[in-house]
Amino acid sequence: MRFWLLTSTTYGSWLPGDPRGSVTSVRDYRAGDPNTRRRVEHDRHGDPYEPYMPGLYRSAGAALKHKPVAFSLQHAKNLAGRFCETAEHRGWRLLAFSIMRDHVHWVCGGADSSPSDVLRDFKAYGSRGLNAELNGGVAKRWWTEGGSKRLLPNERAVFGAVNYVTCRQYMPRVTWRLEEE
Q1: Which of 11, 37, 51, 141 could form a disulfide with 69 if both were Cys (CB 3.0 to 4.6 A apart)?
Q2: Which intervals of the chain are annotated as region Disordered (predicted)?
Q3: Could you tell me if 1 and 93 are in contact, meaning their C-beta atoms sit under 8 angstroms apart?
């Protein structure tokens, strides 16, 4: 089974052009890119962040449909249950997750599922739970689009990712780890 470290940020918490840098799907040529006619999208692990772009940052902030999402403890507890239910329903092996104010990390394996599908389903089922129980049934956008999907190539990498997710997060709302029997 393949395992991934998955990460997603909450809606509005890390905008294109952000002062911290951003991954903005900018398609341009950089030194070291292949010499092709196609433009290269710089949004992969190891690519440098785009620098602070004040105009883009202001524009992205003005385009938000509602305030940026910050998960409370109540949100995190709701999500934790949904993540475990989703993994069980899909037959995935969820090893760990950590829910912070503005992002979530998961370490999960899915034999026949792509990491994009796993991330999409965690976010979709989490959103349904939040909307139903904490938002009066009103749909709200809780997440940014996409997210980081890092393949963990071996057992050591999986162990390191579980440790990172469960022990090295700043002020997690909820942290969960599979307890082996």
Answers
A1: 11
A2: 25-45
A3: yes
Q: What is the pTM of this model?
A: 0.86
In a domain? residue 34: no
Domain count, the chain: 1
Residue 143 near residue 12, CB atoms below 8 Å: no
Token pair recorded at residue 170: 């700043």
Residue 62 lies in a domain: no
Beta bridge partners, 97, equal: 106, 176
Indicate the residue type of 82. R
The terminus-to-terminus CA distance of the chain in angstroms comes to 19
Distance of CA 160 to the CA centre of its chain: 18
Write down the pLDDT at residue 135: 78
Q: Which residues pair with 7 in a beta bridge?
A: 105, 148
CATH of the domain at 168: 3.30.70.1290
| pLDDT per residue as tens digits for the range 67-112 | 999 999 999 999 999 999 999 999 999 999 999 999 999 999 987 8
For residue 64, what pLDDT band results from cuts at 50, 70 and 90? very high
Q: Which residues contact 81 (CB under 8 A, 6 or more apart)?
A: 129
CA atoms within 13 A on the CB side of 73: 1
pLDDT tens for each residue of 137-181 = 777 899 999 999 999 999 999 999 999 999 999 999 999 999 865
